[in-house]
Amino acid sequence: MPRALLPLLLLLALPPAFADALNICYHYRCSRQTSFEVTDEAQAWLATRLARADSPQSERAAVADAVQTLYFLAAQDSPIWQDRGGNSHDGPAEGRMDCVDHSSNVTTFLRYLDRQGWLKYHHAAPSEWRAPHILDLHYTGVLHDVAAKQDWAVDTWFKDFGEPPVVVPLSVWMTGYEPPAVSEPVKQASNSKEGSTP
């Protein structure tokens, strides 16, 4: 766990002073809805974390921490902590999420950060979808770099709950990108298959 998140975990133990409520969804295709409170203490932590960003790159890293933190807060009052990366490892978990759930939640989080005025280099953008292999439909949240006029995918679907989101240029994500931890076993299997061909 990143050291930057340790102060937040201490804040979670404090008595709540509620500031804002955010809506999230889960159970695939946003079939279940819930909301959670962002406490004053958590809000102060998020503001401080984002204020430390002094470039678009460092702000994207701060946004990744913020998205991860907001998910931790949401999991205090919902079963989403049971979500596993992708769709095939969730089983019947009550808090399972598909990419529709993840992209909706991340977009909610990004818009919240934007509304607070904490983003200096980016704005929240509408979610995007891809289908590079026709049947491989996938959605993501999107962050827009204002100066570079470049969109970035902010994708929490690939990894188990609690892991930071994958943040990559949207143009790369659109080609079917998967992070190494997800795609490497596929590549190894593919390579060994090729190696066994006479």
From TrEMBL:
Keywords attached to this entry: Signal
Entry annotated with the keyword Signal: yes
Leader sequence residues: 1-19
Domain of life where this protein originates: Bacteria
Protein name: Uncharacterized protein
